[in-house]
Specification:
By secondary structure, the chain is mainly alpha-helical. It has two domains: 1-106, no CATH class; 107-165, no CATH class. Helices cover 56% and strands 7% of the residues. It has helices at 2-36, 52-64, 75-78, 80-89, 108-115, 129-135, 144-154, 160-164; strands at 92-97, 100-105. 7% of the residues are buried.
């Protein structure tokens, strides 16, 4: 009977250890790794919510302001956290979507390299409903065989002959 309690305690300890690794150590290690490479981001990290609380506050504040009818710059209204954080932290910044780290890249050359990844080096995260609503479920969000298929279909439309017309 005593060995069953010991086994249960070992299993419980392993589970607690894994939870601590996921919720506390992993965010610290990821942030430290990116900071060494010069990528910073919002400083606050809530172990379950990440940066979601700040994102909600920014969304509420953005909805309070009235948008100019003649402006086509909707980023400030639709995704204010991207607009604010990119102005504070530059073209690349790290933020947390719950316990999942995300990096935002606004540099056009890096975005081009990531979107034209043919070897699968850059894994695209699952898109949130707000992103799907904003940009749809197109080439930017597809992976693997679906991405290759859509890319083949779209390539002729962007040839130099078609773009010159």
């Amino acid at each position: 009977m005593g060995y069953l309690i010991a086994i249960a305690m070992v299993i419980f300890t392993i589970m607690i250890w894994r939870v601590c690794l996921i919720l506390f150590w992993r965010p610290y290690a990821v942030r430290k790794h990116f900071r060494k490479q010069g990528v910073t981001g919002p400083p606050c990290y809530s172990f379950l919510h990440g940066s979601l609380h700040d994102m909600r506050i920014m969304m509420k504040d953005a909805r309070k302001t009235i948008m100019d009818k003649h402006s086509h710059d909707i980023t400030q209204r639709v995704l204010p956290h991207y607009h604010i954080w990119s102005s504070l932290y530059g073209e690349r910044f790290l933020y947390w979507y719950g316990t999942e780290p995300r990096i935002c890249i606004t540099d056009a050359e890096l975005v081009k390299e990531i979107l034209s990844d043919k070897f699968g080096f850059y894994e695209k995260p699952k898109a949130t409903p707000s992103i799907i609503t904003l940009i749809g479920n197109g080439l930017a969000l597809l992976k693997g065989v679906d991405w290759v298929k859509h890319r083949r279909i779209l390539n002729p439309a962007f040839s130099m002959d078609k773009l010159k017309v």
